[in-house]
Amino acid sequence: MGKDSPSISSTRGQEIVMGNKTRNIEILMEGVQGAAMQSFANPLSEVDMASVITYTRQSWSNGKNGDGEIIVPQDIVDYKNKVGL
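^ that's the sequence the OP posted. Answer follows.
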């Protein structure tokens, strides 16, 4: 799990997953231009977004290599307020 496949990039040990939690939230909320990562701002609730980000930060050996920080729904709300969503 978490390894590259022909259509999906690896999340194992990647800075995009292991880095700043605000960047993780931004990516899930806004997507990534020029990559196959769409925005999930509308289809996911704050609880779902926090769960997805926490899961990717703690799975596939990421938890022991990064801070393993848990993302809570309030982090998503704070980001939305910060950027005016």
